[in-house]
Design goal:
The structure holds two protein chains of two kinds. By secondary structure, chain A is an all-beta fold. In chain A, 0% of the residues lie in helices and 59% in strands. Chain A contains no helices and eleven strands. In chain A, the strands form two sheets. In chain A, strands 2, 4, 5, 9, 10 and 11 form a six-stranded mixed β-sheet that branches. By secondary structure, chain B is mainly beta. Helices cover 0% and strands 54% of the residues of chain B. In chain B, the strands form two sheets. In chain B, strands 2, 4, 5, 6, 9, 10 and 11 form a seven-stranded mixed β-sheet that branches. Chain B has a four-stranded antiparallel β-sheet with strand order 1-3-8-7, with no helix packed on it. The chains are: A mainly beta, B mainly beta. At the A-B interface, strand 4, strand 5 and strand 10 of A face strand 5, strand 9 and strand 10 of B.
């Protein structure tokens, strides 16, 4: 089935690292994503990783993928107050007709405090 | 980059009326448009997938007669909530599949529409 799970809340001190975890179920997912949503706004793509990669780094963001355990994580280094938002993990699954759709986790609310 | 313009950003309507939400791809062709619904503090639930020129494919449990989706061109898709009721109040977000881009960065989202039915 299609299911993406992630912890709902994370609180970190400004300047520390944040690690948000996610598990997914569709082993055929070729892409996995992290999106950021600020209050009342749409989704902003932060980063994505192709399924044949174990790690991807993009400035302060590091994505780790464990395909065997179907586990994805997002690490934000030197977390800032501007990073406070909801972070969604998503997997790309195939649907009929050769198309794809994104399945989202429930979102992790990241709160950054001084 | 690819931008999807979604309007209105918020709307308040009376129970029983219909509301149309538009999503336009500004500088690219959107072969596929996805419509999501998001309840407060919850995830995005896919409502339907529409391909230009074809009928939309609705997810299980979504009433196709209540949520009318039109994708008549590669740059415009609309969602009409017909005979809206308070339980339809939600945040609706569209997402476009960008033609010619890989699946890594090939999805772009609108800014969302907050619908409140009174």
């Amino acid at each position: 089935g299609e299911d993406v799970e992630q912890s709902l809340f994370l609180s970190v001190r400004e300047g520390d690292s944040s690690v948000i975890n996610c598990t997914y179920t569709d082993s055929s997912s070729t892409y996995l994503y992290w999106y950021k949503q600020e209050p009342g706004a749409g989704l902003q793509l932060l980063t994505y990783i192709f399924s044949n990669m174990d790690m991807k780094q993009d400035q302060r963001l590091t994505v780790l993928l464990n395909k065997k355990d179907k586990h994805l994580s997002l690490r934000i280094a030197d977390t800032q107050t501007g990073d406070s938002a909801i972070y969604f993990c998503a997997e790309n699954v195939g649907i009929s007709g050769g198309y794809n759709k994104l399945i989202f986790g429930a979102g992790t609310r990241l709160a950054v405090h001084p | 980059g690819a931008v999807v313009s979604q309007h209105p950003s918020w709307v308040i309507c009376k129970s029983g009326t219909s509301v149309k939400i538009e999503c336009r791809s500004l500088d690219f062709q959107a072969t596929t448009m996805f419509w999501y619904r998001q309840f407060p503090k919850q995830s995005l639930m896919l409502m339907a997938t529409s391909n230009e020129g074809s009928k939309a494919t609705y997810e299980q449990g979504v009433e196709k007669d209540k949520f009318l989706i039109n994708h008549a061109s590669l740059t415009l898709s609309t969602l009409t909530v017909t005979s809206a009721h308070p339980e339809d109040s939600s945040f609706y977000i569209c997402s476009a599949r960008v033609l010619g881009q890989g699946r890594g960065n090939g999805y772009t989202f609108g800014s969302g529409t907050r619908l409140t039915v009174v």
